[in-house]
Amino acid sequence: MTGPPSFLVVVCTRDRPAHLATTIAALDAQSWKDFEVLVVDQSRPPNPVLADRAADDPRLRVICDTGVGLSRSRNLACRQAATDWLVYLDDDCRPEPGWAAALQEALSRAGDVDMVTGAVGGAGPPATGDYLEVTTYAVVDEAVISGRWTPPWKVGLGVCMAVRRSSVERLGGWDERLGVGSEGPFGAAEDVDLNYRLLRSGGKAMVTPTVRVWHEQWRAATELAPLYERYMAGWCGFAMKHLRGGDIAGGLWLWGLGLTDALRMLASAGRRRSRLRLHVGLAKLRGLVVGTVAGVTRRW
Question: Are 233 and 294 in contact, with CB atoms under 8 Å apart?
């Protein structure tokens, strides 16, 4: 008789020890604890607290990686895992106390879906003033989502997602040319790239409001325009990757989604009379140009 699905929580981190400590504390505080945590640490130098914690906690493992990139970290974790599911959680996310129990219950009834994602709320934004929450994901009703032309963010974001290990392996893992942070032009979009490849291959995802985490909104408003510029550059690089790889219709569609997003932000700036949204909208247009040019000219 097959037992309940097993999962490994993977936290990839680089030079954010205070945020990581909050995430680990939230995992320690779970009401259901029958899971392990693997931290892939690319900090320079490695976070010394992690080694001490791992020595005292049999549920915690640490990989100190000398490389760079979120995709690389996620692939390293996948190769170390033996569980049915990999649960990727950002190092600035705080799961609710019942998160692990709710996730295990959702995985138990997930059927043949490849991915399960939950709601991501924003925690700690400024109480007043002009601000945009970063990487939040609202889920009202539970649903199974599929379809070649489903926008890839509709099935969740890498900030918190559970993916079948076999599905990650089938897709060839996370694309390490994407998600390299500040080390290259494509510092983001590794999660939507995996989502897109999954949906294009006929895969399915379940979204559920019962699984919830909080994404700490620790960035100042002045940091948001450069951040969204990097996000858009990654998005357009990912779009050009697929276009250059022969998926012309898909690549053009993805690029058009990026352009639409930038224009909507500018329109929102006008409606709200928001200087921040104006700066973010213009930054997205710059990212669109940078990512498109880099994506068209590089060898994929």
Answer: yes
